[in-house]
Amino acid sequence: MSERNLDFDAVINRKNTDCLKYDFAKQRGLPEDVLPFWVADMDFKTSSYVIDAIKERVEHGIFGYSESGDDYFKAVAGWMKKHHNWEVKRNWLVKTPGVVCALALAVKAFTNKGDGVLIQQPVYYPFSEVINDNDRVVISNDLYLGEDNRYHIDFEDFEEKIINNNVKLFLLCNPHNPTGRVFTKEELIKLGDICVKHNVIVASDEIHSDFVFSGEHTVFAGIKKEFEDITVTCTAPSKTFNLASMLISNIFIANGNIRKAFKHQLDGAGISQLSAVGLEATKAAYIYGEEWYRAVHSYIKSNIDFVKDYVGKYMPKVKVIDGEGTYLVWLDFSKLFDVEELDRKIIYDAKLWLDSGKIFGKSGEGFERINVATSRSILKEGLDRLREYVYQ
């Protein structure tokens, strides 16, 4: 049997499937006919091997409490070793319904109300939400846009923010969403050494690690033992194989005391066994999904190149930020409009639903995030609308 779902040019109608991306514009205050490029899932069918595994599990017909065994761990560990050269141990693994859930649990486990939690804006907006909603304080070591059209870390400011705010938890996003940066090993060592020096625990969101197009992803906890001992590493098959609704994330925590504190919050939230179907889908993806993954990786890379070429040719005053990873492209409109005018034109004139940069922090104002994990024809339609109705 071979992989069947490799036609990524095919347009699949996702409407009327309770799809967050396509079916809930009106409920969120937007026109019903907007074309969405916001939430980070794909418009592609997942691997046919995953679908077959789900079908087999469903046909069994019993959906009682389920847990994962050795075959599940071997599948996940095998993927981490093959793709990221990282060896994990079974007792490190804690499963959660999602990475954002894991970040929220980390905030509750390792900080107290009123404490500052460090992030690097502009960053995925749930980072701020899980801090604020748990009555902690957002402390941002803002990334800065360099002359090379890439984002960089201000390491001096990073350490000062830790010292001045008595920070005990840092939420790292690598590959970074929305800027696309894939931090180098040297950059991560600088960050990690500072965190070790000041006893800062690192919750490292590495959910986009399978989509790196330039350079390579370095697992933060895998760099050296001192980093392993302070890190909660958050991974999931959801971005890689388009399985977000399966509600499975694999969290690796080597330090027994940190793992115990994290699991205490997990138990306190009433989370125990997860979805039997999700576990089966994850296992199938990591064992049999290699061909599909390589094909979708290549297709998305070509879509990113298409966006760069299109914007450079037809919208030269818009800057496409050079990122090395994720299937999210960060567009700089700051030289054209103020924030509110930009959002209005995109939503109501172009009838597009992008993620406004302002939700990623103040440093994101004037930018827009666009998800390119869609068919080329849909992507071109979105860019054509930007060109016609926004770029004037």
Can you give keywords for this protein?
Aspartate Aminotransferase, domain 1, 14% strand, alpha/beta, four-stranded antiparallel β-sheet, 2 domains
| Proportion of residues in β-strands | 5-15%
Overall CATH architecture of the largest domain:
3-Layer(aba) Sandwich
Q: Could you report the average pLDDT, rounded to the nearest whole number?
A: 97
Distance N to C terminus: 51 Å
Using the coordinates above, name the CATH class of the largest domain: Alpha Beta
Count of alpha and pi helical runs = 14
Instruction: Report the strand count.
Output: 15
- What general outline do the C-alpha atoms trace? globular
CATH superfamily of the largest domain: Type I PLP-dependent aspartate aminotransferase-like (Major domain)
How are helices and strands ordered from N to C?
A: HEHHEHEHEEEHEHEHEHEHHHEEHEEEH
Strand order of the largest sheet: 2-10-9-8-7
Our Rg estimate from Cα atoms comes to 21 Å
Largest sheet geometry: 5 strands, mixed
> Segments where pLDDT lies below 50 for 5+ residues?
none
Number of domains: 2
CATH fold field value of the largest domain: Aspartate Aminotransferase, domain 2
Structural class: alpha/beta
Helix share, percent: 40-55%
